[in-house]
């Protein structure tokens, strides 16, 4: 029990940990609002206010976050030219997303002209979508290479402790990348709802489930080992 409490404290001490918790509040509120909107309008309005407040809080938490993409490129652009290109495109999209998200937040709280909100939302969501596509492609390529490496290790006649450890690491990495892909696909769905509104992506259930998938996949990835 104490170990779980310690891990929760460590998780919530991280900016990403707080973000995933508040994101859970945001999208649970969205689902509840959709569910009771017609039957209990007063309750629905309260959950709508919680959803909006959570969304604005997350934008405040992400102040300066666009620098993480630049730092990722500076520290580890990729082992091959292909991965370097994918990393540049993915992180460039993410930097655009987080940078213009600042202006979206300022326009929604009334500090900047509220008319800017729609334009900032579109640019931010477009950069987000652009980056997610290349993050997903990168993870799929690494997973394919991991599967090939695992098959070679399983097919080899040698059965050593090193081989078992390598397979264990490959499988653990695959799980983390599957979580990343799930989160990125979910967030891509949410971004598309901003770029090109449509009945499917903009539906309360679609957005709510997508937000929770993203939050909980991120929760899993950031949980202390």
Automatic annotation (TrEMBL):
Superkingdom to which the source organism belongs: Eukaryota
Membrane topology according to the record: Multi-pass membrane protein
Subcellular location: Peroxisome membrane
Keywords (A to Z) from UniProt: Membrane, Peroxisome, Peroxisome biogenesis, Transmembrane, Transmembrane helix
Biological processes annotated in GO: peroxisome fission; regulation of peroxisome size
InterPro entries: PEX11 (IPR008733)
MF terms in GO: identical protein binding
GO CC terms: peroxisomal membrane
Transmembrane segments: 83-100, 120-142
Pfam family for this entry, one: PEX11
Assembly mode: Homooligomer. Interacts with ARC5 and FIS1B on peroxisomes.
Protein role: Involved in peroxisomal proliferation. Promotes peroxisomal duplication, aggregation or elongation without fission.
UniProt family annotation: Belongs to the peroxin-11 family.
Record protein name field: PEX11 domain-containing protein
Organism: Cephalotus follicularis
Classification lineage: Eukaryota, Viridiplantae, Streptophyta, Embryophyta, Tracheophyta
């Amino acid at each position: 029990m104490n170990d779980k409490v310690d891990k929760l404290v460590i998780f919530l001490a991280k900016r990403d940990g707080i973000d995933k918790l508040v994101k859970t509040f945001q999208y649970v509120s969205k689902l509840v609002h959709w569910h009771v909107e017609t039957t209990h309008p007063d309750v629905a309005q309260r959950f709508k206010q919680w959803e909006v407040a959570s969304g604005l809080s997350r934008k405040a938490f992400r102040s300066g976050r666009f620098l993480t993409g630049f730092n990722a490129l500076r520290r580890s652009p990729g082992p091959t030219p292909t991965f370097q290109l994918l990393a540049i495109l993915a992180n460039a999209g993410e930097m655009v997303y987080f940078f213009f998200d600042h202006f979206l937040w300022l326009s929604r709280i009334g500090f900047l002209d509220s008319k800017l909100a729609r334009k900032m939302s579109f640019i931010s969501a477009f950069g987000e979508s652009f980056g997610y596509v290349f993050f997903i492609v990168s993870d799929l390529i690494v997973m394919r290479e991991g599967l090939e490496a695992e098959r070679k290790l399983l097919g080899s006649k040698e059965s050593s402790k090193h081989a078992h450890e390598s397979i264990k690491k490959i499988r653990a990495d695959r799980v983390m990348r599957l979580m990343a892909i799930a989160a990125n696909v979910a967030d891509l769905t949410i971004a598309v709802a901003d770029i090109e509104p449509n009945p499917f992506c903009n539906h309360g259930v679609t957005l709510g489930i997508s937000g929770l998938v993203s939050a909980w996949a991120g929760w899993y990835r950031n949980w202390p080992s």
